[in-house]
Automatic annotation (TrEMBL):
<feature type="region of interest" description="Disordered">
    <location>
        <begin position="1"/>
        <end position="30"/>
    </location>
</feature>
<feature type="transmembrane region" description="Helical">
    <location>
        <begin position="423"/>
        <end position="440"/>
    </location>
</feature>
<dbReference type="Pfam" id="PF02687">
    <property type="entry name" value="FtsX"/>
</dbReference>
<dbReference type="InterPro" id="IPR025857">
    <property type="entry name" value="MacB_PCD"/>
</dbReference>
<keyword id="KW-1003">Cell membrane</keyword>
<keyword id="KW-0449">Lipoprotein</keyword>
<feature type="domain" description="ABC3 transporter permease C-terminal">
    <location>
        <begin position="316"/>
        <end position="448"/>
    </location>
</feature>
<dbReference type="GO" id="GO:0042953">
    <property type="term" value="P:lipoprotein transport"/>
</dbReference>
<dbReference type="Pfam" id="PF12704">
    <property type="entry name" value="MacB_PCD"/>
</dbReference>
<dbReference type="InterPro" id="IPR011925">
    <property type="entry name" value="LolCE_TM"/>
</dbReference>
<dbReference type="GO" id="GO:0044874">
    <property type="term" value="P:lipoprotein localization to outer membrane"/>
</dbReference>
<dbReference type="InterPro" id="IPR051447">
    <property type="entry name" value="Lipoprotein-release_system"/>
</dbReference>
<keyword id="KW-1133">Transmembrane helix</keyword>
<protein>
    <submittedName>
        <fullName>Lipoprotein-releasing system permease protein</fullName>
    </submittedName>
</protein>
<keyword id="KW-0812">Transmembrane</keyword>
<dbReference type="GO" id="GO:0098797">
    <property type="term" value="C:plasma membrane protein complex"/>
</dbReference>
<dbReference type="InterPro" id="IPR003838">
    <property type="entry name" value="ABC3_permease_C"/>
</dbReference>
Amino acid sequence: MWQTSRLSPPDRARYSPAVRRTGPKVGTLPERNEDAKRIRLKLPYEWQIGWRYTRAGKRTTGNGFISFIALVSMSGIALGVAALIVVLSVMNGFQRDVRDRMLSVLAHIEIFSPTGTMPDWQLTAKEAKTNPEVIGAAPYVDAQALLTRGDSVNGVALRGIEPSEEPQVSDIGKEMKAGSLNDLTPGSFGIVLGADLAVNLGVTVGDKVTLVAPEGSITPAGMLPRLKQFTVAGVFESGHYEYDSTLALVNIRDAQVLYRLGAPSGVRLRLKDMQRAPAVARQLVHTLSGDLYIRDWTQQNKTWFSAVQIEKRMMFIILTLIIAVAAFNLVSSLVMTVTNKQADIAILRTLGAQPGSIMKIFVVQGVTIGFVGTGIGIALGCLIAWSIPWSVPMIEHLLGIQFLPPSVYFISELPSELVASDVIRIGVIAFVLSALATLYPSWRAAKVRPAEALRYE
């Protein structure tokens, strides 16, 4: 007895008694070989037909426009995924570079007294170093001032440092373009300026600048500003415009004399892992003696980092809409395919295919398009993101333009940092949207009535 219960509907028709008696009309041997291979693979016929529709051109579909729409849908998904990966990589690189350049000047944690001075700073530094995360400590004086030279006047953040201990908490010593921090000897009244600040004042090493302290001196003639002439001992360039244009360094003893302070303002700390700065700051609150304030680097620039995070989230949402639009194109492509394949669907239904099997065919087709488009987009996006550090400077050189003015974006080079979690998240979202886009067309295909579909065939 001829068994057909275990065969798929297309194979059931091929191996029916009528076909067995008369034999296939054309292509006997090739068809048998193909059928044998198909049976050996033991793949569900829904998968085979869905993949065949995905690979089909005008000859199979009967309509080249449908294949074109499917290709557009796949390309749209790929471009959306690639764009999202590139944008997030650039934003990650921008945040990383600004943070690193910022922390080359700033300390990870600052400890200071509400009175403005810390006479026992050595004790505080010793207690802080008992924490295993703290690897360096140095005193500092923090003040505001005006620097003048000729007609140029600039407000600056003045920082008094101990040159021998400053390398423990910052990398300014490694970023000197001219001079050295060791030239800031006590009593010499030397000053180290940021590169952009030096350009604004029009000074180089060896030139004189006048520092105006906000605290004046009371004289019989009234309140007079406190002035002191400093010699430019060096110029540093951190790559962060905000600090290169506003920061000036002097010896801590000179700062104490100028501002009439009996002790440093506080202690600056450097950690093994800067990402643990908030946690370490909370630990130091309970281990340090005295009435002290503790501030980590995330609090000093909280507004900026919050703005970057919000912008990153909004860009992710906006660019995800590109993928959503491509998914809608996939819906239209599958709907047109279902309309074009109604006769095939009707034949499959008459051969015993269930509505769920019909749905699977078009789900496989749509998911395949989404999977291939997502894969191409991930590969393209990763390639572009990886090439940005060297390709963008080349484009800028060829076109004679600068995409990132340092006075606006803090950095002058377009950075990029690929984060695996971002790539995985983008790929999953794109694939899920593509899969969801197949549900309505597949449901519509399952609702096709064989009698109505074959009425005019």
